[in-house]
Amino acid sequence: MTDPTEALSFGAAAAEYDRFRPRYPQEAVRWALAGLTAPARVVDLGAGTGILTRALLALGHEVVPVEPDPGMRAQLAAATPGVTALAGSAEAVPLPDGAVDAVVAGQAYHWFDKGRAHAEIARLLRPGGVFAPIWNVRDERVGWVAQLSGIARMSSSADDLAGRVGDFGPAFGPAEQAEFAHRTTLTPDELAGMIRTRSYYLTAGPEQRRDIDRELRDLVAAHPDLAGRERFELPYRTLVVRAARR
User: Fold this and answer.
1) For the chain, N or C: smaller number of CB within 10 Å?
2) Rounded Cα distance, 246 and 243, in Å
3) pTM of the shown model
């Protein structure tokens, strides 16, 4: 499991997280829940501010968000009228056995205590139900994006994640993976806002934050793909892994 200090750092920047983090392409969310007819009952585990919850709602599903951070739950409620997140974690969800058709996790699975979380997710799912973690990961095959990842100390690439994720334990069948191209359009200020919602930045000291801000300004001012532009595209690789409950 990753550092819990970083895992619970996002609440202090919940409004900015909800504003600046990328949304999920609908085709990726549909693929995650392939075979499930709406309305399916879906747990959004580690739901954060509700970015994935809202994508699921837009596809007609019934969504139960579960989130440990009270600041993130408050922002989810503010941004998602009529939906209230349950206080809980991947390792302890306050729902009965076999209560849901699917469990998803957007930008969250890498924070889980895998063994405990797999058992809890299996408990929640009906037989044949689906577990699907999803990530939006910067496309570091683009030169300036690779530089951005270095500046913000963002270490996990799509290829890294794809190589590490794939076995959810004996309660699940074989995992499948799919990748979807995705882009967001940002101003320089919005790019800076997004970087300031990263866990490394949120847990860094004042000097480290100043260094990141300076290096980011230098990148935007000097790189030929960015310099002088009011808006530019940040490319992502959206990775989805899914497996069925045995």
Assistant:
1) C
2) 9
3) 0.93
